Structures are given as C-alpha cells and as structure tokens.
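User: Hey, quick favor. My workstation is busy. Could you predict this chain's structure for me?
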Amino acid sequence: MDNGDDRGGRRRQKATKPLDSARLNELALAYVARFATSAGRLNAYLTRKIRECGWDDVAAPDVPALVEAMVGRGYVDDAGFALARGAGLMRRGYGARRIAQTLTRDGIDAPLVAQASGTVHEGRVAALQFARRRRLGPFGSGSGQSADSRNGRLDPALRARQVAAMVRAGHPFATASALIDAADEGAAQEWVDEADDA
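Assistant: No problem, here it is.
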C-alpha cells in the first residue's frame, strides 16, 4: 500500500503543474480573499509562485496587470493595509522606524508609510507600551535592576541595554533615553501626555 512516503519516511511532494493565466488569476483571488495585503506583497507572491511552478501559457505572465486588476476591484488597498499594519505594530510597542521598515518591505509608497508611522504622541504611547511589556526603565520589577546608589538611577550597563532594546524596536534614541530615565511610571505617563501633536 502506497501511503506517499518514500523509504526515508519523508512525504513525497506532488508534482506541481505549471501555471497559466487562469490558474494565476485563481491564485491571486485566493490570496486576497485570505490575507489583507498590499500590491507589493501580492506582486511578490505571484512572482514567487511562477518561479516555483513554472509557466505554461502562450502569453507571458503579466503580474503587474493582474495586481492592478485586484487593486481596481478594491481587493487590494495599500492605504488601508498600511494604516492597519502600522496601527497593529504601534499597539505592539514598535516605533516609527520599525514601522517604516516593515511597510517599505511590504511595497508601500513613502507618503503612505509616513502617514501610517504615527504622530509624536502615538510614538510615545508605543514606546510606553514597549517599555511596560518588556519591563524596562520605570516598569522594571526591581529584581536584576541594580540602581546606582549615588543617584538612584539604573546601572549604566543595564540602562544601555534597555535603551538599545528600545532603539532596535524602532524608537528614536531620545525617546528611548527619556523613557528609560523616567523616575517612575507616573513620570513616564506624564512624558507621554506632554507630547504636542498640534
């Protein structure tokens, strides 16, 4: 009885049929139905599928035209995708630089990236969320946070690691430093509230 396994116990892969225009359109529709996506991500997905499966049609594949058709039908909306993705990353505590990197990698144009990266106040809220989640600065539990006995601040090496973690998360150095150096949770919240987005 053939169960699809070869002698090594690994499952044999089914031979994939090369794509044609109709099958490529079906793949595009299935992808946009399943995932919120950008035009750039859809283009990359379809191009990868053609590379993996091959092409078997008289006409050459026109991926940009197919992507544009999906945009025209309203199945792909870069602005909506960018705003939703940016907001999701901010809720997780990521800063504007990390959001911009992610959206640029997703093929979003610069004006939409800037719009989705948030305001100064939103950036501070995200930084606060990140520090709270990672227990950095004033949100540290005290265990493992050796304070300098002369000024009550974090040990310089620990402070440097915490600031670096926030910078890697996409927050500007000044933002990371201000939050890590906040005296307590109340001071951190005041710092967030004083951001002027006008």
